[in-house]
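Ligand-bound model needed. NAP.
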Amino acid sequence: MTNKTVLITGCSSGFGRLAVRTFQQVGWNVIATMRSPEKESELTKFENVLVTALDVTKPDSIAQAIDQGFVRFGAIDVLVNNAGYGGHALFEQFEEAQIDAMFNTNVYGPMRLTKALLPHFRQQGGGRIINVTSMAGEIGLPFATTYSASKFAVQGWSEGLAIELAPFNIKVNTIAPGAFGTNFNAATDNAFSAGDQQVQDQAQAMAAHIGGLAEQMLRYGGEDADPQQVADLIYRCATEDMPIHNAVGADAQMLLEMKLGQPRDEFLQNMQQMLLPQ
Ligand SMILES: NC(=O)c1ccc[n+]([C@@H]2O[C@H](COP(=O)([O-])OP(=O)(O)OC[C@H]3O[C@@H](n4cnc5c(N)ncnc54)[C@H](OP(=O)(O)O)[C@@H]3O)[C@@H](O)[C@H]2O)c1
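Prediction:
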């Protein structure tokens, strides 16, 4: 048993929600944050779980959630930046406001939380930051370029941060999941009806092709594409000495092996073959 405390963003569903239960079951205190805590009826029943409002785009709500966490548990040892969403469309179809919104959540969100907690981590002599990224942060994905850019940003930021924070005994890890059947696909910001006819036709063809591939990836994971795998890896990063970057899911492992096992251009040519409709 431990009396450590973890703060997790995006706990209303998916990996974040599973992570709450994973930590809670082994005695951690959990600050389970979400945009609409008034809708939550299950996590609120657990003794050592504080369910509280946090929107990663709103600095005031971040400060309030952290304050409430300190009042209830006295310390925060681990931050899990999990909240995020995706979006499918050709790049030309994305409005600048959509790009801003995605970066605001997926990139500036984790940065805001990290900035808010770093002084506490330094003061208490250490801490851990776990950033949930994506295989889209390892491989530039067509038809999801804005999402890919946001996740690449977090991968690069985390890598530099891990080195920068080592002298303060603050560890940083990334977790890059492959395809898992959470709410993620329903929550995507898709824009493929924008643009002229040529753009729309290409977007429809890409949507059909990429949609088919995503299904295959989920099936490739088979029984193994259980989102609990991601929650378990989050827990391991909080408690063990893990590499900075971690991939999870059979499809993610396969893609990463391809990426690392081939010259860069050869790999990208293979990706083009696979990711464009023929
Ligand atoms: N599932 C996959 O295949 C997959 C693959 C690679 C990476 N990921 C990454 O994994 C992370 C978790 O996704 P998931 O698969 O668990 O999807 P999910 O079930 O859709 O969960 C996403 C969570 O993020 C929250 N969220 C979105 N915007 C937020 C904001 N501004 N402030 C606070 N919370 C916000 C959502 O809250 P609401 O309920 O309020 O919308 C939800 O709780 C994301 O960063 C995603 O990019 C997922």
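The CA atoms of residues 91 and 205 lie 15 Å apart.
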